[in-house]
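Q: Sequence in, structure out?
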Amino acid sequence: MFEAFERGDRVEISYLSDRSGGEVSRTGTVLQVPESEGKRGFFVQTDEDQLTGVMGGRVYSLSVGTEDGDRTVQRKTYLGDLEDVTAA
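A: Exactly. Output:
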């Protein structure tokens, strides 16, 4: 599913919301594709300090911040099960 995308591509991630039960989507720029450089997970930057990650068919929201000069994940929230990833 992720093979068609590379770092810098604009994509839309659609998922079945765990909260509302409906399909929701988030759009952003690809930061990491699975299997590239031995990495796991598909990560998209949706805002300056907000990422959307797909791991094992599940979609997560990741809030990032800076700690001792390094970017770190401050909070991870499960959003729902992945439906699709398409070019935006």
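The chain has no helices and six strands.
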